[in-house]
Design a protein that fits this description.
It is a single chain. This protein has 192 residues and is α+β, with helices and mostly antiparallel strands. It is built from 6 helices and 7 strands, in the order E-E-E-E-E-H-E-E-H-H-H-H-H. Strand 6 and strand 7 form a beta hairpin. The longest helix has 17 residues. The radius of gyration is 19 Å and the shape is globular.
Length: 192
């Protein structure tokens, strides 16, 4: 990887950085233009520490997992690379809104998500087959047996799916509600 002022070269291919799409604890995501064919992509830039081999192993797992998915409901992985400071993952650019922002927008406006939209989102999530046996994802959605003992099986994915469905219906994160002992019921006046 070679970073220039507003471009980067990844595995010999030059990309022009157009804008930052988001950032968080994982790093940053940029919208980029591949110069040889004028196609847009997203590049995830994750800072790494050379002293942390576990972090590099996690990157390799993430890249491997992403490379195995082939679904219109999951962001497509194209390539990855690393240098001494960062890991880069080249992915499909999704111009639409992400699920986190979609839920937050409804929560901030105190508007429940329409039932037909929920059915569509849940249906799309259920079409993706599990292929990993490793811990991956945000702790709020990871099954307790993975967090406590590192034990993973297909039931763990059902836990994660349930947490997301709970959030879609209540606009609250299940883990936070459970810790506060304020689990919400689905509003039967609004939903069938």
């Amino acid at each position: 990887i070679k970073m220039e002022k507003m471009s980067l070269i990844m595995n010999g291919i030059k990309y022009e950085i157009k804008k930052e799409l988001g950032s968080g604890g994982f790093g940053k995501v940029f919208k980029v233009l591949r110069l040889f064919d004028n196609k847009y992509y997203a590049i995830k830039q994750i800072p790494i520490s050379r002293e942390n081999p576990e972090q590099i192993a996690n990157f390799q797992k993430e890249a491997y997992i992403l490379s195995k998915f082939n679904s219109k409901n999951i962001v497509k992985y194209y390539d990855s690379s690393k240098d001494k400071n960062n890991i880069y993952i080249l992915m499909e650019l999704c111009d639409g809104e992400n699920l986190r922002n979609f839920i937050d927008k409804h929560k901030n406006n105190n508007i429940l998500i329409e039932e037909n939209i929920l059915k569509n989102i849940i249906s799309q999530m259920c079409k993706s087959k599990t292929i990993t046996k490793n811990k991956a994802g945000t702790d709020f959605y990871i099954a307790p047996e993975i967090l406590q003992k590192g034990i993973y099986n297909e039931k763990s994915d059902l836990w994660s799916l349930g947490c997301i469905i709970y959030e879609l219906f209540t606009l609250n994160i299940y883990y936070k509600d459970a810790v506060r002992r304020k689990i919400k019921k689905i509003d039967s006046k609004f939903y069938n």
